[in-house]
Amino acid sequence: MYQGKLIRLRAFDNSDLMYALSMNNDYDVMRTASSAILYPTTVEDQARFMANQTSYSSGDYQFAIERLDNGCFIGQCGVMQVNWKNRRAELGIMLTKEAAGKGFGTEAVSLLCKFAFDEMNLHKLKAVVFSFNTPAIRCYEKCGFVHEGVLKDEVYREGRYHDACVMAKIKTEA
Questions:
Q1: pLDDT of 149 above 50
Q2: Is-contact 158 35, C-beta < 8 A?
Q3: How far apart are CA 169 and CA 141, in angstroms?
């Protein structure tokens, strides 16, 4: 539905189920995407999540990320925790390992910002990125996000605590 030069953001469909499940059960992907305890996702849980991502839902606006050249599912991204009064929300993105480092994430974040600012009329977007996820930090910087602060010892991963970087983009800076 929202298309760039490399990817399209679209609704999830049934063909995405096993690809999304595989991505959500990949430790290397999830270690940078979730502060929760990394525990396997079931087929039923993944199907339920995808079924709840409709144009009739409110609150979170999640998209599947699809490559334009071959139509393959390569990840998901979304606008979450929308605060309508203050016109702000948080962004999140996950890519498969195979899709990382090829410009797909940067384009997805750019398209997501366009959706949030131009369609949702939001004023500010925030991303919270683990300090060890330097590719994501670079991606957000390329998309015009600035560092607003550091959350010390925010996430416990692999036996120790890590900081999280709070990054943001304001519509007037877009």
A1: yes
A2: no
A3: 9
